[in-house]
Amino acid sequence: xxxxxxxxxxxxxxxxxxxxxxxxxxxxxxxxxxxxxxxxxxxxxxxxxxxxxxxxxxxxxxxxxxxxxxxxxxxxxxxxxxxxxxxxxxxxxxxxxxxxxxxxxxxxxxxxxxxxxxxxxxxxxxxxxxxxxxxxx
Length: 137
Hints:
The chain is mainly α. It contains four helices and no strands. Helix 3 (77-104) packs antiparallel against helix 4. The protein is elongated. It starts with 5 loop residues before the first helix and ends with a helix. 23% of the residues are buried.
């Protein structure tokens, strides 16, 4: 039986749970982006799951790299693409979050920003998963 790197395995499990929380929050948003002038709906519980998931990912990701590799030296361009996608994801989340309250108060401009933020977050999440597969194969 192969030796199991328990600290890394534990971090990986937590990381995957964080990813599941983010996916639970954002993937249903594909159908909720809103159509025309109808503002998109906001589910605060799902949003909270997504925020907790992002926190878990931001904590476990760097720890996994440190436990496995000891530094960021020598990581592939796929890893850095993944990091860029994380920045895009954060931007989409922030754009959507700061626009949610004005959208609920009836602002059509805020509703458009929420749609754009959600679209950015969804595309970024997909890019994160794809680039992670290639970065750590």
